Every structure is written in structure tokens, then in C-alpha cells.
Amino acid sequence: MGRILYGVMGDRGGHLSRAIAVAHELPGHEILFVGGGRIGEVERHGFSFQRTPMIGTEMTGGRIDLAATITGAIRELWRYRQTIEHLKGLIDEYDPDLIVTDFEFFLPRAARALGRPAISLDRHHAITHCQYDRPPGHFGTRALSLGILHSMQMAADRYMVVSFAPMEPRDPIAAEVYPPVIRRDLSGFSPAEDEHAVVYLYGVTIERIREVFGGRERRFVVYGQGREGEEGNLVFRRHSTDGFLADLASAAYVVSHGGHNLISEALHFRKPLLAFPLGFEYEQYFNAWQLQQTGYGALGEARQARAALDRFEVDLEGLRQRLAGYRPWSERTVADRFDELVRVGL
Questions:
Q1: What secondary structure letter does DSSP report for 279?
Q2: Number of other CB atoms surrounding residue 26 within 10 Å
């Protein structure tokens, strides 16, 4: 049995969901989480945590709010030394066998200050550490994303990238690539096919939801609006894990922004996905483009969302046929690798 100190940026669900899923696959080890935002949710899963300052991402109107994000980062960096000293003390006291960060800023820097190695596990470093054909356009958002990654998220000693499609690392010594981490909640649901589609969009106005999805024959189950009720063919639901997964497992298809976790879960249930990436979220654009390249989904332009949805409906049967043969591209998991590293070291 080993000890794992696990830093998570908890401002949104993707990082936290992945970290909890990995932890569930490591029952023989003691895991202590550190981070901010929604980090306290790990307690419901039987894990301990310490709340620490967080540099997160602020959203306004479906786009990254750069001004608010920068302001928040400056506020937390103002007490950088205090936070690092606290985490250094925690590392000395806890004496972990493995230190992991999922987009958490401070922990790998505290580890480096003590001469302790740290691993980064996330999706974003597919952009910096893997070989790929560059998607067309979005040069500004790509440059911005690379700039943020290089300045804020390059303090680890090794990078583990999750990917729903196989990718090759540029430097196998510095980076490794693994299939998606699928949370164990999904095992309680079997894929079926109903006529409804699941829509999970946040930062999008209710008026825009009605404009794009309303008045159609298909029923759309809409999450991310924080409301319950029905309006014609639209069914609004507040988030609950079991409710969402039941709707996802039985959906005809999924519409979302292009987050890697939801794409991976949709593929797990063999569901085509139409992605409308958030503004300034290059990683979501890259995910959606890669999904389209595999033939398992489509990349849509948010300003022409209704037309994109019409095209997606026309292509739906072909996407389903291709997805019938989907399988994870490797049986070796992140948890397997973590277990190995606890035993033999980095």
C-alpha cells in the first residue's frame, strides 16, 4: 500500500471527475487530495482532502472571461510563497510515494522545491506533448492556450495524457498516452437507444437553447441551465449523476462543448456527439476536431448551431454505424501505471 498526494483544479467537473475515477481504481492505496473549488466532493467518495488556494478559469457568457481569470490568478499568486510553504510542509508530513497533479498549479512547484518528482495527468498536454496534424484555423486561441500551458502548467517531471483516440508522444521519456479514465458510475448503466438527445451546455442563454433545439420533432433533455420543467420538446433537468447517466446511456446522441470526459463517456455508450467548443477553449476545439476525424462525431460552429444540428441529424446513421465498432485503443490504464510507479518509483 502506498500514499498518493493528488492535486486537482476543482473549478469545473472534468478534472475532479477524472481524479476521483482514478482514485477508485487504486483501492490498495491511501490518497489525499488537495485543491480548491469543488474539491470537497471527494469526501462523498470516501477520500480525504485539504482545501488549498486555486488558480482556476472564470467563465462569462459561454466564453473564458480573460479579465476575471487573470484577476483571480494575480490574487492567488500574491500569496504564492505562503501556499508553497504550506504544501511543502504537507509533503514532508504526508511523505507520499507519488505526487500527481490534474491541472493544479501549486503542488508540483512545492514538490520541485523539495526535490520530489511530480506527475501531471490531464488532457490539455496532448497539445504540447503529442504528435498530431494541426486543426485548421484558431491560430490565436492555440497560441493563447500554448502560452498558458507553458507558463502555468509545465512544472511536472512527467506528463500523462488521456486520449479517446490513439496519439504518439513527441518524447516518450517525458510523456505517456493512455485511454480515457471512465468513472465507475457508468458500469451501472447499459447502452440503449431512445429518441431523445442529451444536451449539456453551460454558459449558453435559455433563449439560445430554445432557438437551436426548440420546435423540433426530437425531444431534447437539457442539462446545464439549472432548471427543471418541460417546454414543448425541451425537457430541462438539474444535474444529478444517476439521472444524467441514465439519459446519456439511452440517448440517440449528445450535444456538448467538447470536453474530453463527456466525449469519452459518450463513446463508451457508443453515442455520436456534436460539439460546439467554448470560445477561447482551444483544447475543446482540438477534441471536437479529433472526434470528427475519427468519424464518431462532428464539430459545429456555435454561430450556425441550428444548421449544424440539421446536418448532424442527416449524418446520424453513418455515425452510429462507425461507432458500433468503437473499442478503447489500449487495455493499459492510468491506474495501472500509477500502481506501478508507487511500487518502483518515478
A1: B
A2: 20
C-alpha cell at 297: 462525431
CB 49 within 8 A of CB 57: no
Cell reading at 202:
453551460
User: Which string of DSSP letters, residue by residue, matches 143-185?
Assistant: HHHHHHHHHHS---SEEEEE-SS--EESSTTTEEEEPPPPPGG
Give the DSSP letter of residue 10.
-
- d(CA 182, CA 186) in angstroms, rounded, equals 7
Determine the longest span between alpha carbons in the chain, in angstroms: 60
- Please give the span between the terminal C-alpha atoms of the chain, in angstroms, as a whole number: 16
pTM over 0.85: yes
pLDDT of residue 76: 62
- Report the alpha-carbon distance of residue 101 to residue 85 in Å, rounded: 17
255 in Cβ contact with 274 (< 8 Å): yes
Helix axes 282-294, 139-152, angle to 10 degrees: 120
Q: Beta strand 168-169 with 130-131: parallel, antiparallel or unpaired?
A: antiparallel
The DSSP code for 28 is T
pLDDT digits (tens, 9 = 90+) for 236-253: 999 888 999 999 999 999
Q: What is the pLDDT of residue 125?
A: 95
Can you give the pLDDT at residue 203? 81
Cell numbers describing residue 161: 495524457
DSSP 39: G
Question: CA–CA separation, 107 vs 226, rounded Å?
Answer: 33
Residue segments in the chain with a per-residue pLDDT below the cut of 70: 12-13, 54-77
∠ CA 179-1-178, rounded to 5° = 10
State pLDDT tens for residues 58-93: 555 555 556 555 565 666 667 788 899 999 999 999
Distance of CA 185 to the CA centre of its chain: 16
Could you tell me the CA-to-CA distances from 213 to 28, 198, 242 in Å, in that order? 46, 11, 24
pLDDT of residue 66: 60
